């Protein structure tokens, strides 16, 4: 009898014969296939072939056998509804299956953890989150990273969820809303990938993604009736993360506007500077700046305090593009300015690991020769004053942005700069 589940008409008769109850059941049915997204998150680094082989060769057959077995058990013994999974096994296999289920849960959690690390790294490099300490755990695989801050945040969120909900059945409502919200969002974004990234015709993109959006939206709507039973938790968590990300991005944009407005154009400054050139000293000074056309505050403060200028000066800007990786041929762009002064732009993708020192060594073919042992890096550290200027964000968002900026990770670690060659000079910025 359980093989009738393979007949699509059986599902159609169930949906049409039970009215609104069938819609409510969808909120529980979706939990049967959640976990498939964990497979993609955990094995995405290995490519589509590995996912296909794992899914069709092991995961899908195992799931079908498991659910068919539970269905057959319930047909033979309706009392097994209490716990059809564990009651499907003989008594001697109960504890081994508990151990196996626990191990499977731990393994599945690795998909969430590695996915959180990877997305955080990409969000940082796309400018949606402040810098964090990112540790690479493999010399051969770029995607194997560890982010301590995210690890502790995950611990706090999981502990709050476990203590707050108290049981896995109550947590299932929150899980269903989170997974279906993720699937719906992913399907929506797929349209932009296949239309603008791959260049497929509009009608094909609408047809392909529209069919999946209809299915995902139906399941998401079925899960939403459990919002008051715990589904609010992932929605609230997502809203908080979204607010932080948009606050950081908007705050950075305002900060760059303030810095550009208060700075002298770099070309004009250099021309006036060399009318009465200061004393030159040996070595190369690298001024990291996020506004390549403006004079870095670190240079102004260096001239004010030291009264000297290095023999060679590099004004370096790091740019992150909306692509996974930038080819080495497009990594650097060099422009010669006044008297051994250079403007350098270094480009990275959101999956590249920034290394400023290595990028400078790639400037040789453009005429910029640097000795790593004679490099000095000058960085500007901004002290942000919230709510002091017009045209910014709401005061509470200014304060959130200032707090995020104060707790941002070290720029030297993020850009792989030797700490013993860094000079930091502070400046006060009102937003």
Shape: elongated
Unreliable stretches (pLDDT < 50, length at least 5) are none
Calculate Rg over CA atoms.
Answer: 28 Å
- How would you classify the quaternary structure? single chain
Helix/sheet category: alpha/beta
Biggest β-sheet strands, sense, barrel: 6 strands, mixed
Distance from first to last alpha carbon: 68 Å
Q: How are strands sequenced across the largest beta sheet?
A: 5-6-4-3-7-8
What integer is the average pLDDT? 86
Order of helices and strands: HHHHHHEEHHHHHEHEEEHEHHE
User: How many helices?
Assistant: 15
* Helix percent band: 55-70%
Strand coverage percent = 5-15%
Total beta strand runs = 8
In brief:
The chain has 431 residues and is an alpha/beta fold.
Keywords:
431 residues, two-stranded antiparallel sheet, alpha/beta
